[in-house]
Amino acid sequence: MTAHAHDYDAVVRRYFEAWNADGARARAGAVAEVWTADGRYTDPVSDATGHEAIGAVIAAVHERFPGFVFRRVGGVEGHHDTARFSWELVSGADGSAPVAGSDVITLDAGSRVRAVYGFLDRVPEGP
After folding, report:
1. Most buried of the four, 11, 61, 73, 98, by CB within 10 Å?
2. DSSP for 9-62?
3. Which SUPFAM superfamilies match (predicted)?
4. How many domains, the chain?
């Protein structure tokens, strides 16, 4: 097995650009740039495969949390084709961060995301 050199920080920066993309067209383009065609996103409440389904998960988060952005917390740790990092969902209005978690991602040889395994560390109560 050949090891590939990945710029984990750059990959995660693009990942957050996809999560923070404004509007359906920008989101679709960012998701297509970040994920492989058969890429998967999974966390305790979502399981999506493919660009359209992943874009729908991102859109649903923004519908539930309008005016919020995802922000990385701390550094990115990576080796081989895998990286992990923590994040929080932050309100642009008051700086509150009701949602936080950690993600583990796997990459293809071209540094595109094949899979995301998300863990939610803090979630708000209610619908």
Report:
1. 11
2. HHHHHHHHHHHT--SHHHHHHHHHHHEEEEEEEEETTEEEESHHHHHHHHHHHH
3. NTF2-like
4. 1
